[in-house]
Amino acid sequence: MSSQTHVIFGAGQIGTPLALLLRSQGHHVRIVRRRGRAPEGIDLELGDARDAAFATRAAHGAHVIYHCMNPAYSTATWARDLPRLMHGLMDAAAHEGARLVVLDNLYMLGAPRPRPFDEDSPLNPCSAKGEIRAHVAETLTDAMRRGAVRACIGRASDFYGPGGTQTHLGDAFWPGALQRGKGQMLIDLEHPHAYHYTLDVVRALMLLGTANDEVEGRVWMLPCAEAETTRELIGRFSASLGRDITPERMPEWMQRTLGAFVPMLREIREMAYQWQAPFLVDDRRFRARFAFTPTTPGAGAAATVAWAREHYGKKR
Fold it and tell me: What distance in Å separates the CA atoms of residue 39 and residue 21, rounded to the nearest whole number?
């Protein structure tokens, strides 16, 4: 594999480990973010990617551009920023003749259904955030159809795993789970739900960035293990931790009441439908194309517990 320049917009729970993985493969890597640092050996460009001119400058020389940005979890913020970010990176990719690899979620596909979501699932949003995601996705897919940009989309459900701080199984869950044996949850625990392991997502994005051109112009469901309930996944955490973790689910009435005063609760409640029935993903096309075997839930849980002990232990 020859060395290329890979530019990653966003340095959060996916962007940073993606940069490290690409560097380990011998590539020149640049992270673009609004503030902060980059790991050793990785270039850093600071600025606001909502400024299309800046995004194009920051992507100079790129062979591959990765869109791993996700603004604050707010419908109003998404409506304002997500279209601008997408247009800016599309312009940057077109200017450089680079491949754009976009990490996206499943919000635009709507409510759970009997058949698992796959690459052919129609856009059918049933939430304000889903409507925004659908509009932005249509903007990109239209540009791909017209040949205006070389791009592909990798879609994933909810994350768990090392680095997954901004998840239902992240900052809100692990401090209590480690200190008191009780992890705070806002979601239903009893239905099978497709969770994507963070490091599988990272590896999958690298594969989309470094594969032949035939991956372009397409949506790909990123690989994940067979869905199990959130309660079962927490049980795996307990087994790896060596002691029980009891999930503490905030009652619906309390979520509604507190939502009047806590904006984030209102934002999260809008997406509760994703846990009220089996939420399944069919990733067979990605697995077949890349001979990819996702991390097993047992191994993923063990690695997540090891990371959580290290990451949240430092904050005690």
Answer: 11
Rounded CA gap, 45 and 36, in Å? Answer: 10
DSSP 27: -
Residue 31 CA: distances (Å) to CA of 65, 200, 273: 10, 20, 35
The whole model's pTM is what? 0.95
Which of helix, strand or coil describes residue 208?
A: helix
H helix or E strand, kind and range, residue 78 = helix 75-96
14-48: per-residue pLDDT in tens? 999 999 999 999 999 999 999 999 999 999 999 99
- Residue 195, helix vs strand vs coil: strand
N-term to C-term CA, the chain:
43
* Beta bridge pairs of residue 184: 248
Greatest CA separation found in the chain?
56
Nearest alpha carbon to residue 55 among 76, 80, 81, 24? 81
- Count of CA atoms in the C-beta half-sphere (13 A) of 227: 20
Fold for the domain defined by 5-229+276-313: Rossmann fold (3.40.50)
